[in-house]
Amino acid sequence: MDRSARMPNNLPDSASFVGIDDASDMEGNDPMRNGEPDFRWDDGRRHVTNVPYMLPKDLEEGQRLDFQHYMLRYVFKGNYLAPIKNPNNILDVACGTGRWMFEVARIFPQANFYGLDLVLPNQGNSTLRFPLNCIFKAGDVADGLPFVDKSFDYVHQRLLVSGIKAQIWPGLLYEIIRVTRPGGWVEIVDTNLTCQRLGPETTRLAQWVQELSISRGMDPSLQQNLDRHLKRAGLVNVTAHRVSIPVGLWGGRIGSMLLQDILALTRATRSIVTKYAGITLSDYDYITTKSMQEYEEYRSYSDFYVVYGQKPE
Predict the structure, then answer these.
(1) Residue 133 and residue 92: Cα distance in Å, rounded?
(2) Sheet with 152-158, edge to edge strand ranges
(3) Mean pLDDT, to the nearest integer, of 76-94?
């Protein structure tokens, strides 16, 4: 079996390509067939079938992800915190729209960037013009990472823990470390599933979301212990940062940005939450409107975490 990746001929001479493990491609009844997922439509939104991830995969969600990217870049004053220097190969796990890759590729133009996601960026409709050193591959992280061992100097993963089953997480972390080169860095960015300091209606909504995620096999507490997981997995020089971001106009520019992000998230999960809670769409819309008011009244906030560690030499 040829385990090498097929790459364009006109990439930089300094390129050092990683091997793509074709044996990891999905077969049988998995949600991926020939690299393309199966979709279903619900409440006017497009979702990938047979995955625990509750959010849609459509243009509107892509716009939200880009907006969220700008917010996080503003909060953390950059696109990464790990002390990476002169990397050759970088992997973005669950790359979304690819905007993080696009921006970091401008910082490290000598490096090769690989993005893995259930649904690849629609480069035909994107305003981004990805350079030739940005390469995308469709895949489900639950099936492992389709790359050979010790391929990457830096592996980045953002806001995925709440979208995978808890039983998958240890294996995914093992896979991330497996494809990281000795001396390379792993960085994970995530947030709590719900906000803190909530009003009564927002608490109801948060409780439904928590229960729903647990019923789908997820563990809402994983994000708070990421540093512990990285240390147990064998990484060294593990560093953790927690930033509390206000939700609402009371928090200024950044609070307004997170409020808009949460409103978009609330709309995106409208159908699935109403079905779980046994309420009408109009009831859900009323609770959503009240929650937007309560974020201001109770000065709610959300904790975001950045944890990075180094694979031993």
Answers:
(1) 13
(2) 134-138, 112-117, 89-93, 152-158, 180-191, 301-310, 236-246
(3) 96
Distance in angstroms (rounded) separating the CA atoms of residues 305 and 244: 9
- Contact yes or no for 223/192 (Cβ under 8 A): yes
pLDDT score, position 6: 33
Contacts of 282 (CB under 8 A, 6+ apart): none
CB 259 within 8 A of CB 292: yes
Residue identified by tokens 């696109």 is: 79
H helix or E strand, kind and range, residue 71: helix 59-76
Amino acid at 109: P
Q: DSSP E strands: which ranges in the chain?
A: 32-33, 36-37, 39-42, 45-48, 89-93, 112-117, 134-138, 152-158, 180-191, 236-246, 301-310
> What pTM, to 2 d.p., does this model score?
0.87
Instruction: Let me know: does 118 contact 31? Beta carbons within 8 Å.
Output: yes
Identify the H or E element spanning 210: helix 200-215
